[in-house]
Amino acid sequence: MTLGAGTAWAQAPAPPPWAYTVNPPPTPGAKPTPPDPAPQQVPGSAASLTVAQTRDAFNPPDWHPSAHPLMPEPVARGRRPEMRACGFCHLVNGQGRPENASLAGLPAAYIVQQMADFKSGDRKSAEPRMGPPNAMIQDAVAATGDEVRVAAAYFASFPFTKWVRVVEATDVPKTRIAGWMHTPTGEGHEPLGQRIVEMPEDLRRTELRDASSGFVAYVPAGSIARGESLVKTGGAGKTVACGTYHGPDLKGLGPVPPLAGRSPSYTVRQLFDLQQGVRKGPWSALMKTAVEKLTVDDMIAIAAYTASREP
Q1: 8 A C-beta contact, residue 250 and residue 242
Q2: DSSP state of 83
């Protein structure tokens, strides 16, 4: 019986590494390069910050303060040393990055429930080595109910805007994993194959956490059209039409989150996590029928299509 359980576990599909981005281990003996001490600027901002300042998880850089409402304390500062500022990982305008979630425009009730799921252990990642989900669990455990509600109300108060440019391709720039995301190496191109490669439009601005510089996602040729069929019709019983729960335009329905225009890497991770049962909060049961028959290629197609839509 023990052998059977072990065999079943061994046969569980591995998380696709291109979606579950894990930083490589440091080179033995290598010393980290000190950050550039010179003040930095980004387009459209009068601010001047050093690289070190942009890396403070308890004081995230706000390059464009007029572009969002006044941030509450949990978003702008967090609470030292237990809870990082929400605006550090998810950016001060909630647009998010490929390694985490875009929070802008999500229903407040949905955000509150996800924090409760992280805190209770009902929401985990299929890849336990991936840093951002683990950081989310730590912050959720530390956050008070009032801090969660204030942050959720902030992010729900303004809309998510188009942030990811979706491009069908066969070859893509070579990348490496750094900062939990794909970053270009500048060493030419490589075949895309059956994966999604999502990377910064402008690596420097992304590394400075400029909340006005977005991302490009390369998806397999033909995946958007295939995804449209799965999303709109369920693919002849392969899944459930996404509009049933997420609204006919994929812009959300009540407390159910919108999908249109959001990170395809994140979408694939959530579909896979739900299928593998590591994301199992109270609302996850709604997705059981939708995900149980999907292959990773199906998830790629669905995510390519949803990301290509206007939010």
Answers
A1: yes
A2: B
State the distance between the two ends of the chain, measured CA to CA, in whole angstroms.
49
Q: What does the pLDDT look like over 164-203, one tens digit per residue?
A: 999 999 999 999 999 999 999 999 999 999 999 999 999 9
Average pLDDT estimate for 267-291: 95
Domain ranges of the chain: 51-156, 162-308
Looking up tokens 């902030």 gives: 154
Torsion of CA 182, 162, 279, 108, to 10 degrees: 140
Amino acid 140: pLDDT: 98
Q: Please, are residues 248 and 309 in contact by the beta-carbon 8 Å criterion? A: no
144 exposure class (CB count in 10 Å sphere: 0-12, 13-18, 19+): exposed
The CATH code belonging to domain 51-156 is 1.10.760.10
Q: Tell me how far apart the alpha carbons of residues 122 and 276 are, in angstroms, rounded to a whole number.
A: 12
d(CA 144, CA 157): 20
Confirm whether 51-156 and 162-308 share one CATH topology. yes
What is the spatial distance between Cα 302 and Cα 234, in angstroms, rounded to a whole number?
10
Please name the CATH architecture into which domain 162-308 falls.
Orthogonal Bundle (1.10)
CA dihedral 250, 235, 271, 253 (to 10 degrees): 20
Cis preceding linkage at 258, omega within 30: no
